Each structure stands twice: as C-alpha cells, then as structure tokens.
Amino acid sequence: MRLYNSLTRKREEFKPIKKGEAGIYACGPTVYDFLQIGNWRTYVLGDLLVRSLKYLGFETKYVMNITDVGHLVSDGDEGEDKLEKGAKREGETAWDVAEKYTKDFKQGMHKMGLLKPDVLAKATGHIKEQIDLVEKLEKKGFAYKTSDGVYFNTTEFEKQGNKYGELSTLDEIKEGARVEINKEKKDKRDFALWKFSPEGEKRDMEWESPWGVGFPGWHIECSAMSMKYLGEQFDLHVGGEDLRSTHHPNEIAQSEGATGKKPFVKYWIHGAFLLVDGGRMGKSLGNAYTLQDLDNKGFSPFDLKYFYLIGHYRKQLNFTWEALEGAKTALERLRKRMADLQGETLKVDGVWEEKFRERLEDDLDMPGALALVWEMVKDKDLSDGEKLGLIEKWDEVLGLGLSKVEMKLEIPEEVVKLVEKRSRLREEGKWNGADSIREEIEKLGYVVEDKGGRTLVRKR
Ligand code: AMP
Ligand code: ZN
Fold first, then answer.
1. Residue ID of nearest Cα to ligand 1 atom 18
2. Residue-number span of the structural domain to which 408 is assigned
3. For 112-205, where are the alpha helices, taking DSSP H only?
4. Could you give the number of structural domains in the chain?
5. Which listed residue, of 155, 161, 348, 453, carries a Cα 20 to 30 Å from 380's Cα?
6. In this predicted model, what pLDDT tens digit does every residue of 211-257 receive, in sequence order?
7. How much is the pTM?
8. Does the Cβ of 71 fall within 6 Å of ligand 1?
9. 407: part of which helix (H) or strand (E)?
10. Which residues share a beta bridge with 122?
11. For residue 46, which ligand has an atom nearest its CA?
12. pLDDT for the residue 75
C-alpha cells in the first residue's frame, strides 16, 4: 500500500514496524461544542484508513484521544480555554460540558457508521501519564519553569542534536498571532507542557503536579496517550492538515525528546480541509454545520459520507447544499440498484476484487473506489450474486450500509431511516428496541425480513 507521508513529503510503500500489524493514532475532538462537518471529514478519513488496512489484511490497533481538558483557543499558550469557554456559554461546569459533547461525539460516530476505536482515551483520565512525561523531559533538560507554567525548551532540544519542526509546513513555528508574546519564554517557539491555575482562582479542571496546581498544555496528552497504547514508536498518525503546522511537530518533539531520538511515528497522514461555499467554515460565519443541521434539512450521515468519498483526502473538498443533494441522489440510486439484484450472494470475483484493492493501495483513492462500485454494478458480465458478493466485501471499507439493507424500490425516507436504526440496534444486540422499530415500520405499511445476513424491505 502506498501512502503520502507528510514527514518525508512523498508517497511511500507502507511498511509497518511489525509485519502484518498497524498501529494508528488519530487526534480526537476537543469536546466543548458539537462537531462540524469539517471535523467529521477528518474522522471519516481515519475510519477509511483503518478499514482499508484491515481489508488489505493488516491487524490494526486504532487509538483516539478525547481532548476533554481545555486547550486554548489560539495556537499559543495564552487566551481562553476552550472547555471553560463552553462552560461559560452553557452555565455549566467544564466537566459537564466535556461529558455532554463526548457523548454527542460517540453518538455521531455511531450515526456515521464509523468503527469504534480500540482505545478512546480521555485526556482527563491520563493526567498521571502526562505529568510523568513532563518529568522525563525535565530530567533531560528539555523543560523549564516560568511564572505561569512549565515550557518545552526547543533550543536545548536542537542543541542535543534533534530536529524541531521538520514536519511543519511553516517556515518557522510561531506563537499564535493574536496572543501577547510571553516574555518569560526562552524562545518564541517554546510551548507549554503544564500551565498553572491563575493565582487566587479555582478552575473547574485542575490537578496537583510537582510544579504546582494546574492543567496540562495542549500537545502533551497526545504524546502521553499514543505512546501508552501504541508504544514509543508506532506506524500511523492521522489528523487534519491544520495540525501539521504546530501540534504534530510539538508531539514529535515531546515524544522523541523523552524517548531519546527514537523516531516517534513512521507515517504522518494529513487530511485536507473541508470548505463551505468555497471558503473557510466557522462558527462566526454561520456555516459550521453539524449533523443535526443536516438532519433538519433531510440529509442522513450516510449522504454526507458519500459526499466525502467523492473527493480525495489530500484535496480540499467544497461543501455546498447542492453537492450534498447530488451525493444523496447518487446514494439512493446505488441503493436501488442493489435492491434490484436477485438471488444468493456469491463468492467474490477475483479480478474485480483486485481492482478494488489497487484503489485502496493507491494512497486511499476513494473516488476511484466509488467509481469502481458503479462500474461493477453496471457490468453486464457479472451475475447478480457476484455483484452482491462484491458489494458486501467492499462495503467493509466504504461503510455506506450497502450490503446490509436491501430496500425494494420506492421506500419512503421515513422507513429507510427506521430500517437503518433497527439494523444498528440489532448489531448492538438491542433486540427489544429493534423489535419495536419493526412494529413501527409495519404500521407504516412495510415489512422487514432478515435473510442470510441481509435485511430486505418491501411494501406489505
Ligand atoms: P479540534 O476539535 O478543533 O481539535 O478538531 C478536530 C479535528 O478536526 C482535527 O483533526 C482538525 O484538524 C479537524 N478539522 C477542523 N476543521 C476542519 C475542516 N474544516 N476540515 C477538515 N478537518 C477539520
Ligand atoms: Zn494530537
């Protein structure tokens, strides 16, 4: 499999550290608000990467963090804390806010049909690991104390023969532009490892540490948790392209500083941003749409997922409501095609299977994979059974729910949603819930049947 590695700036053959295994870490959300469709694009990328690796025969371990302790609104170490900001907005504690949006994130992952990471690690659950790591850095001379916190010493890091900021696309990693320069820092590139609670103020989230009461800096959690669950060196690290400039170089500095120059991560995978109407998306612009916003307009998470698949992950993708409408129509057409296929699912055709693998191996060419799905479905030489077999297999990667639900033509949206909900409940073993949804579906005049791993829906 060839993947574009942001560290070496070229496509490389994926060679895991341990043959046949792949350790993947994805930077998770800061849980102070609902996720927007840009965030979801990045989480779908992580999901596609893991699913593709599995498909290609690798054994995967997928770790994601939940940033539930405030990191600061700007790139620097000053400014307002995101969790505290959320708490103020909602008149609740930072703990409540974190819990609420963590729950919403998990539900969103589920609605989007994304794999559950093998480990979903909360920053607040790993304070000790973070403190231990800062202590290690301190022992090696890479940390110093100021009046407001403990900082990473980039100058010393370089002096001891390490490279700082190699991954970054910036000429020089700088402090956030909007924040005041911290005069106590030895170098403007230095960043906080631990911050002290402001004097005379009790924060919702604060912990004792060898340096004083406070909270971790915003990069240290990823180094501490990724190394805890994947080892000091692991294969793949995923995140949005914005993290490449500062957050990820800082993760590398902290980790390699602590372990002694051992290359931290072999392959860095960065997803390009989602734009809205050709521009940046943001809360203040009113275009940071959430899954709920989509739902209000009649779009399902799968419509969104289909839309993501249309663009290659390394290219920016432009969201418009028209484009989403197009994706929805295409997905409906594809589902109808599947519904028309008759008979038993047959063994997968080798040539087509090979073509699909080639798409995945070509730096996760999802647009190509999707085009192949259409080509295959329209192919006159394949039997219905073979098509069913292929789609079942391919959907292990695409995750569009194509294989599991078979809808006969003209099933109303309302019923489609109920059927999808029922399937999810069944997967979770919630049989009672699934049965009551079956009854709801019947009341609407439709019948669901489960046959050989597939769900058939038709008019009564
Ligand atoms: P945050 O919660 O801000 O830490 O962001 C969570 C993830 O979403 C990170 O991997 C970001 O890089 C990613 N992200 C933020 N905005 C966008 C966007 N517009 N398009 C794609 N990914 C994004
Ligand atoms: Zn991270």
1. 38
2. 404-460
3. 127-139, 154-159
4. 2
5. 453
6. 999 999 989 999 999 999 999 999 999 999 999 999 999 999 999 99
7. 0.89
8. no
9. strand 405-407
10. 66
11. 1
12. 52
